[in-house]
Amino acid sequence: MSGSPTDLEFGVFSDTPPWDLNPTATAWGGDVAALRTATARRLPSLIRPPKVPPIRRAITVIRVLGGALIAWFLVGRRKGGSDSRADLSRRMRHGAETLGPTYIKLGQIISSGEGIFPSELVQEFIACRDQVPAEPFHLVRRVVESDLGASLESVFATFEREPIAAASIAQVHGATLHDGTPVVVKVQRPTVDELVHNDLKVMAWLSPLLIGRIPVASLANPPALVEVFARTISEELDFRVEAANMIDVASVFADLDQRQFVVPRPHPELVTRRVLVMERLDGFRFDDMERYEEHGVDTHAIVRASMIGFMEGALIHGIFHGDLHGGNLYVRPDGKTALLDFGITGRMSEARRLAFVRLLIGGMMNNPVDQLAAMRDLGALPDDTDLEAVAEDLGLLDKVIDPTTMTPDQLTEELQRVVKALLGYGARMPKELMLFVKNLAFLDGAIARLAPDLDLFAEVAHVATYFATTHGARLAAEVGMDPEEYAFDPDGMKAAFGVDGSVERMTYRELQERRETIRKRLQERV
Prior knowledge:
Layout lengths: L31 H16 L7 H20 L6 H19 L1 H11 L7 H7 L11 H12 L3 H4 E4 L5 E2 L3 E8 L4 E7 L3 H15 L15 H13 L4 H17 L5 E2 L3 E6 L3 E5 L4 E2 L3 H7 L3 H19 L1 E3 L7 E3 L5 E3 L5 E3 L2 H15 L3 H10 L9 H7 L14 H17 L6 H20 L5 H23 L11 H7 L11 H18 L1
Parallel strand pairs: 5-11
Antiparallel strand pairs: 1-3, 2-3, 3-4, 4-7, 6-7, 8-10, 9-12, 10-11
């Protein structure tokens, strides 16, 4: 193409486009709203516990996961502590791989939940991101030709037989169009739609039987976890929706003038339910430290831009990439970050977006009751929750106690007390909040790798100042607050890290040391 691409006016795309994208003139975009509605309507039937689940699949799931648990109970449990959790995690990962796409996808979500799930589980399930066995090429060909209605050779000049990556729902192949344009082709695994729906029915049938029996579900009972997972995976089964997500996120960043991000352009014609052809972007993995030095890219700038961009999209537009991890972000030689894989995208209603705004303001002002009110409006607490009682029960109104000064018994008792109180109030983890927290956990880990000596207190203050100066008046008006009332509370921010106001600076390296101290003391109690 020659000339400046016109689609840069509405989206954060590359400066050298293979095609100029017009969202209103795509061959696939007209039905996306109806597709989303149909998915939402189908969801209740998928998560309603059936009287009789798909028998053969239920037997397989119970045999595989039950066998893994029994083997751990007889052998791995005796190792104790972290070794015991690692043994169980390994067996569960093997079970997920045996059971296929649905359970592998669950493992992928766990793998990007650093800070939410046990570290042993996270590390084990990282293998589910791109080490999933690929489908045979003849099946890939069959899906592509069936959905595009033409032979592979008539659409592509070249098509790589070996995938670039293979994940649970789909795999990605490099290809070239007949005009010489390099592209990426995402191809859904055959029969995955039927398998996912059967697995969700089995999960819905099993989950009520597990209530109170699995400690890992501390902030959401098993049926609630199934509902969140079902909402997440159901949206990934139609690539026309994913292509629309790509355009929507690109438009949000353009509106916010966040031009440090780049989204690949979906092809205006070659997108179907099971095939997605998109622009191929160059770059290196987000966690490849050597390449940062090679290209002279400022890691601190990358971390700061990622944090602000992710939060800004969620708070201002209610739309954000819902599955940030090292395999979905590539840093380009010019320092911009390419976002990939939009199958999971956070979309909030206006009411929930405003609840997120109140959550942020309540956190910056150190107002725990306002934060709990926002959590209630997000669906994390029942509507009739006594917020003052919750704040008191959780100790949010008490003086900060540095957890590193607590004994193993004290730490364990405090953790058990908080979890018990939350469960007693019916706390749960709604989808949008889970995706948001999971992304924050990923960014937390990114700081550890890319900027371990970053002053966290200064960085949080910078983010707070940015939102106050850039969006303060708008956000305050939206939640009915006088902008003059806003005052960032640095001592409250420090309290969130478990330290008192006398501590002036804390690097991520120091925070990790504190976490390691807490982890070891908890293990001493095991």
